[in-house]
Amino acid sequence: MLDGVLSKFFDIEQGVPQGYTLSPTLFQVFINDLLEVVEAVRKGVKVGDTETSVSGMLFADDFVGMSDTPEGLQLQIDAAKKFTDKWRLSANVQKSAVMVCNENKEEPVEHRWKWGIEEIAVVDQYTYLGVEIAKDCSWNAHMSKVAEKGKARAGKLHPILANRHLDTRINLTVLKSVIVPPLEYTREAWEGNKKVVKELEAAQMKAAKIILGCSTRTSNAAVRAELGIQSLRSGRDARKLTWQYRMCGMGEERLPRIVWEAKWANKKRGRQPTEWVKVVEDVWKGLDIDEDETLETEGLQGFKEKISVACAERGEKKSEERTKLKANYSALHSVPLYMNQVNSAILRIVAGNDALSITTSMHPLPRTRYQNNFDSGVDSFNVTFYILIAFSFVPAAWMAYIVREKETKCKHQQVVSGVGLEAYWLSSYLWDFVSLMPPMAFTLIILAAADVGTLISGEAGATTFLLFLLYGTSMPCYTYLWSFAFKNYSTAQNAFLFHNWITGLILPIATSIMAFFDGKVSDVGDGIATLARLVPQYALGSGLMKMSFIPILSFFNDTEYTPLDGAIAGNSLRYMGVCSVVYFVLLLVFERISAGGSFLSGIYGKLVLGRSLKKLTPKQLGDEDNIDEDVRAEMDRVATGAADNDVVKVAGLRKVYPVSNGAKVAVKSTSLGIPRGECFGLLGINGAGKSSTLAILSGELPPTTGSALLGGFDVGKNPEEIHRLVGYCPQFDALFETLTGREHLALYAAIKGIPADKRSAAVNQKIEEMGLTRYAERPAGGYSGGNKRKLSVAMAMIGDPQVGNKNRETSEAKDDGSSTVVAELRELPRLSIVFLDEPSTGMDPMARRFMWNVIMRIVTENKECAMILTTHSMEECEALCQRIGIMVGGRLRCLGTSQHLKTRFGKGFQLEARVKAILPEETDAMMTELASATNGQGTLGNDGGVLRAALAAAQAPELEAEVSPTGRGASIYHAIANQGGVPVRDLAAWICVEKKCSKVIAFMQQQFAGAVMREKQNAKMRFEFPPQKNQTLAQMFGVVEVFNGFAAQQEEELGHAAGTMYLRVSREGRERSR
Questions:
Q1: What is the pTM for the complete model shown?
Q2: Helices (H), 826-873
Q3: Which residue in 308, 358, 399, 725 is deepest, having the highest Cβ count within 10 Å?
Q4: Which domain does 348 fall in, by range?
């Protein structure tokens, strides 16, 4: 309409897009007409016993159709589809759904509804505007969801609600505006599920109690009274009554009134009324007024006020007089004092006399004996707790030291050198026991100074002392037994510390608490305590804690306990006393089982391997291996007794290790004899069986089968006698980092039985012999790798008198007094066997050569001593050993002297040659030759033509092919590629070297058939070539010498031979380790 004139009508053929001005108006016309179209189908849902039916409802722009039958609903859908098409609109079928309510489970509806050709989904639950609608017409799912949201909001707002600096009114406003509204939403539908209503109430009260900062046990009624709020149920009841009032005032044609009357019809027909109707009746009776009178005479506002009062007072106890008291609970007497003031005020009002008052007096009652004992027990428990924490670290330190000695082979070195197993463990035991005395004494002094009566007074003091004393006698051996389970000392220390905390802190606390209960709990605690007392850490902790709880236990059990009672500390004392002896015996048994070839170790080996050993085939055991003729001859020599006089005799030695999936054969039936005065070299790669063989011979491991005799004594049966004859140098230096070199040698001299008056001379001799004079007074932890190996060899040799005779003779010539020292040393005990496990590892070439000289003197001068040398170096074996054995896969593959092995298994020769260094004059001369090609430039660029011209000018064009990533000129190639050029002087020096090397290469290929250069490093070359026909080794050396002689006579090399400065020819073996 414009200026009072209505516009002309026009047809809408395509509809109006969303967002246009007319869109809302046109859609409202459409949606209202749609409702009429659907109702015209007359297939709706009847209300009660009336003729009224409902076919559809409108919610804003959403439409809901309803029908009693599946067919009726489909007719409604078809009518809506036809009307929508007429308006040229479309429906969103993907967002539409059908829900079958109050379905008969015995005859479920299987109908499928369609919007045209599109099928509409059938659902059991549908969410609309945040409300969960269920097919059983229950609101339980929706109410549970609302309750969870309320709790979540209360949790998120906890920092605000719990803020004591904010006024309560602010927090109450947050409660009423943020948390309560979602809980009250659709509250008229809270019927039939008290559990859901309880969850909603709990969500509201959680936030309310956070505001007040009170306990969760505080009465809900008290919280509501404090904040001036009502329960959600009371608010709901009031609102439902208001709705009922309004529906009663509606006309009979209004649908809400018809529905309301249908609900009340249930009661009129004598049926059980619904719960919400019953609520209405109860509240109405509480008002004590007539229902009709209220509806006719009361206005809406007055009616609502009476309803609110009735709902608020329902379920609450009425009080004639109420006084609200707020007190600070941190003040112990504040509440009675304040209440006294209130009572005094009431007294004055009632009596009408302001002078009256009530006087309150408060005096603490005398402390009871139980209170004193309880406090004393708690104090003692706290002290005991910290004592046990401190004493958990002491055994962990013992464990770390023992495992560290085992890990670094220090223990094995001492045992091999002559320390008996009993002596080793007894000395460790005594030292650890003595080391425990200072902390024990300090603890007792602190307890006495702090006057911890339950632990220190009278009989308790003696009991505490006995607990610590027996702990000191039992805990070391218990710790040593656990050391067999670890290989790394840091892991052992941490694991055992954790073990001590569990057994010494957690378990005693748990069993002490369980003792206060009756029945099964106490019995289980007693059973745990009986087993746990086998652990000294638990026995100590349990004894001290039970002594702390004596007053409390006496009160609960109505029994007077003493510290020595079995239930207190008596059992712990008895257990630790017995375990002190038992654990030491077990320690020695375990030690015998784990080391050497004793009877116990044999039993242990059979038990561990068990069936795995029987399942091994002859092939796995090595019985079907092809045995070399030299190895077979040695086996026969041992078997026939020809090796009985040898200082080392090994017969059928086999070592099998248990593994997760069976067994691994490390040493396969090895037989060997080593006579006196021989150095035997044992070669092989890692895992070949060398270390296992040496470990068996030195007594570290027991053999699975076979026997080993050293100096006529069996390794397993006579370990002590063998250790007096053996010197042992382990693969890794078994040194004490804080001891000096001199102290190491003095220690092992004493272990090997050198008299005290002759010990200093023996130590000085070894220090001088090994070249350790400068380092003798320094801690061994600061030695270099080479010096550590020297010290380890000196420790292995310290008991041998004849080592270094040559040096002693020199000393005699220089000093007349030294002859006395020599005479004394010759009377010392003599070593028969020396084991050297890779003695020169980590040494520089000079130190290695020095070590070889020392070992050679031992071998050549001490004819009574046999030596076994394990190494990876064939060169070392050639220099030191009379015989060499090569192990592969646990078996000796070949045996004999170095020359014998080369003769039998040699495949050719190696020749190493190095040309003399290039002099500056030669480089200058070569640069002069290159000047024409480089035009006097100092750097040669990456132009290939210039390089080719330079090589041609130097009369070495053949070297161009060598300038490649893998050729002899790789350094020149990479310099040009990476730096853009190479200095001409560097190129000239390289050409000089390569021209000389080319002559050597040509000579080798001409003189020795099949010669191949395998390696070249600047001026050094290594060639390999097969044996030459009609040429002996001497003749081959002669050919090389002739070449050197002629090379030195070249005019351009006059005075500077082009031959080799270093030449080495060796014969390759089939089993060679370099």
A1: 0.55
A2: 845-861
A3: 399
A4: 333-360
